[in-house]
Amino acid sequence: MKTTGSQVTIAMDGPAGSGKSTVARRIAEKLGLLYLDSGAMYRAVTLLAIQEGLEANSPKLIDRVKACHIAFTDNGKTILLNAENVSVQIRTPAVNRRVADVAKIPEIRREIVEHQQRIGAEGNIVAEGRDLTTIVFPNADFKFYLDASVTERAKRRLAELKTQNVDATLAAVEAEIRARDEKDTTREHSPLRTADDAIVIDTTCKTVEEVVDFIVEHIYGSEAC
Ligand code: DC
Fold it and tell me: Cα(204)–Cα(24) distance, rounded to whole angstroms?
């Protein structure tokens, strides 16, 4: 396996519903690495904004983000905001609707990116999101960009919502995904884009296992194995 010293950093980006969270989590389990869900951090500060009644572009929110404490436990499965487990609250429709607006504020991104870089400083990490391959870990040992058709991504999101007993239609979920894609790819700061040296994987017709196997084989089959 090609790595930086004895440590490995795997970065993964892609749009909502591309499967990157599930894939990254499985790879972390398989290879015994730390899992970093960067989107959960933007969701946590969005929840903070909602709880405190602050607009995304409010200077007060930036102060609150600087002062807040975000941590992960249970290898990235649980997120704590000021010591409170907010893993379920950060997935609500209210957070979904507002998170892209909070994530586009440069001062907020700066705080969160620095936090992510501190978490990843030791290496041995699989980190996923929108700017992990381009901004957060530009020197990652392995970079992947996962994608899938909008309809397939909406179907996956709908299935996930059903397991949480959240009522929604495919058309509504698809519209929400399109709106978020538009915001994530066109924002001024750190838009979602494919890093030149990332391997692009279209997951539309692939199972999670197929994508995980492909990535693991690529990692172990790489030059300096
Ligand atoms: O991956 P997700 O759906 O949980 O991400 C939630 C939002 O956070 C998404 O609209 C984009 C934003 N995000 C970001 O701007 N940068 C990241 N590294 C991860 C997520």
Answer: 17
Rounded (10°) CA dihedral 48, 186, 92, 64:
0
Q: Is the CB of 100 under 6 A from ligand 1?
A: yes
CA distance 172 to 182: 15
Ligand 1 mean position, distance from CA 192 (Å): 9
Q: For the whole prediction, is pTM greater than 0.85?
A: yes
Q: In testing the pocket of ligand 1, which one of 18, 20, 21, 38 has its CB within 8 Å of the most ligand atoms?
A: 38
Cα(130) to centroid(ligand 1), Å: 6
Domains annotated for the chain, with CATH where assigned, are 9-209 (3.40.50.300)
Beta bridge partners, 72, equal 79
Alpha carbon of 48 to those of 27, 79, 117: distances in Å?
A: 30, 13, 22
| Tens-place pLDDT, residues 27-54 | 999 999 999 999 999 999 999 999 999 9
